[in-house]
Design goal:
alpha/beta; six-stranded mixed β-sheet; 10 strands; 31% helix; binds adenosine-5'-diphosphate
Length: 229
């Protein structure tokens, strides 16, 4: 059963300017799909519709067969975890920043999430561990470390669906490779949708959807798309 369905979705931010022109695609449960396309194609817009920051003008979006306009904001938030491009951390402890994703997260759950995000070697080196303050007056984390905290924050919610919105595009190439390896592991056994503007960052996807100007223009595996280029 497909887990994420876009069914003829039409959307524009302003009434006279359509951004998504009847977008349709299906991501089967457990698959790792990616959406690529040039800047302005509508990739972030489709992610915003999935979270219901906006609703389509027409068409439907289904998660596990349910129209998302019919589910509560709370259950939508519980079913989708997002790793954004630039994660905002609070000026608080690492533990707080990870646990923030879920009310009442226990220390064990925070540690498990940190392990999943490969954060433990960093935390182990800190005298105060998870109680280390980060941010303006605390420890300055590198871009890659911040992304690991963001990944842990997502993992602590254990969401069945993962959306990676340009999750590595702000990082240098080597850090990007490290984080991609972590994300690949994290996406296993989940349904995932990675938004990217370069094919190189989504080589692991089961299927790649190429969108341009709010329309699906082709789809295929990484190898198929490279052959067609
Ligand atoms: P991508 O993520 O593929 O780069 P976006 O979904 O961000 O593309 O943008 C698609 C189009 O929608 C662009 O033309 C962009 O300028 C426009 N757009 C994005 N966000 C807004 C907004 N909040 N209000 C108006 N137009 C927007
Ligand atoms: P993201 O960083 O998630 O891709 P942004 O909201 O920063 O999304 O913007 C994506 C694109 O949409 C950018 O090209 C930006 O210029 C454009 N955009 C954002 N807000 C507006 C807006 N209110 N009106 C027109 N274009 C917008």
């Amino acid at each position: 059963k497909p887990s994420i369905v876009f069914d003829d979705v039409v959307f524009g931010y302003e009434p006279d300017r359509t951004i998504l022109h009847g977008l349709s695609f299906e991501v089967p449960a457990g698959e790792a799909f990616a959406v690529v396309g040039p800047s302005g194609a509508g990739k972030s817009t489709l992610a915003r519709l999935l979270f219901r920051f906006y609703d389509p003008q027409s068409g439907r979006i289904l998660i596990d067969g349910q129209d998302i306009s019919q589910v509560t904001q709370a259950s939508l938030r519980a079913s989708i975890g997002i790793v954004p491009q630039d994660s905002v951390l609070f000026n608080d402890t690492i533990g707080y920043n990870i646990g923030y994703g879920r009310d009442g997260a226990t220390r064990e759950e925070i540690e498990a999430a940190a392990r999943g995000a490969s954060l433990n070697s960093l935390v182990a080196r800190l005298p105060k561990g998870f109680d280390t303050e980060v941010g303006e007056r605390g420890l300055k984390l590198s871009g890659g470390e911040k992304q690991r905290v963001a990944i842990a924050r997502t993992l602590v919610k254990n969401p069945p669906i993962l959306v990676l919105d340009e999750a590595t595009s702000a990082l240098d190439t080597r850090t990007e490779q490290d984080i991609l390896a972590t994300l690949h592991r994290v996406a296993e056994h989940r349904t995932s949708l990675s938004i990217a503007h370069r094919l190189s960052t989504i080589a692991d996807a089961n299927r790649i959807l190429v969108i341009s100007e709010g329309r699906l223009v082709e789809s295929g595996t990484h190898a198929q798309l490279l052959r067609r280029d």
